[in-house]
Specification:
Layout (H helix, E strand, L loop, with lengths): L1 E6 L19 E2 L2 E2 H11 L4 E6 L3 H8 L2 E2 L2 E7 L6 H6 L9 E5 L2 E5 L1 H11 L3 E7 L9 E5 L5 E6 L8 E9 L2 H8 L10 H10 L4 E5 L2 E5 L3 H21 L1
Parallel strand pairs: 1-4, 1-7, 4-6, 9-13
Antiparallel strand pairs: 2-3, 5-6, 7-12, 8-14, 9-12, 10-11
Helix pairs in contact: 5-6
Length: 245
């Protein structure tokens, strides 16, 4: 599979950490945030990275160049920050089969391989990792309803009154059908083209979308305290490995 990484964001909420660099280049445990994404995706067998850049894109391109761990990198440019569905359409010409998608502001230590396996077994058009969050946090995310088969029946982006506390995380697999849905998405109340709306369009057209529960942990690095928590966990993990050896 090719792996798409969305890394065009400014990281306004991460200031002052992003005053001189894009969000994806904020360091966690001595590595840029996006490098943690590359590591995870490489371990999952990514054959090529397609990276969507935008704000201060030169920092990312100059740092990584045209490959990471001998895996080629292709860059696309999201000129305006108009949402994830808008960002995803910039890679359409580079994708012709099922692919992985990771948001470049997440750190995972979780069962990502289960998402790939489930999509392939069910021949679904999409699968993604979900987790239950405190109810007061659910309105920050795309909120999901599922049936007893673990299939997604509805996705609502950042609802004021969340119907559930089950939310999408930042890792997905898609078939190319997602691009057709993204073309049909209309701007939300926030003025953005939401990936949740594209997924909901797939559901309403009868496509199978699988939800896989998170086993492990992930941190959505939106604020400086999230960056600190991610670093703390990664350092604890490194210390535990060192002690075991």
């Amino acid at each position: 599979m090719k792996a798409v990484v969305l890394a065009a964001g400014k990281g306004t909420r991460l200031r002052p950490l992003t005053e001189d660099k894009p969000k994806a280049m904020v360091e966690i445990d001595e590595k840029p945030l996006i490098e943690h994404c590359f590591e995870q995706l490489a371990d999952l067998g990514a054959e090529e990275f397609v990276v969507v850049v935008g704000y201060m894109k030169e920092h990312i391109i100059e740092h990584f160049g045209d490959s990471y761990r001998d895996i080629p990198i292709t860059y696309t440019h999201q000129r305006e920050q108009k949402g994830l569905a808008h960002a995803l359409l910039t890679v359409e010409d580079y994708i012709d089969d099922e692919f992985m998608l990771m948001l470049g502001d997440n750190v995972f230590r979780a069962n990502l391989e289960d998402v790939i396996r489930r999509q392939q077994e069910d021949r679904a058009d999409a699968a993604f990792l979900v987790e239950e969050v405190p109810w007061e946090e659910a309105s920050r995310y795309g909120v999901c309803n599922t049936n007893n088969l673990g299939e997604v029946t509805e996705v609502v982006e950042k609802p004021d009154d969340p119907p559930t506390n089950l939310v999408m995380t930042g890792f997905y697999t898609f078939s190319p059908e997602i691009f057709h849905a993204c073309h049909l998405v209309q701007p939300s109340n926030r003025g953005e083209y939401e990936i949740s709306e594209a997924i909901d369009l797939l559901i309403r057209s009868g496509r199978t979308i699988d939800a896989i529960g998170l086993d492990g942990w992930r941190i959505d690095v939106g604020y400086p305290e999230d960056r600190d928590e991610a670093e703390r966990r990664l350092q604890e993990e490194s210390e535990a490995v060192a002690e075991a050896n």
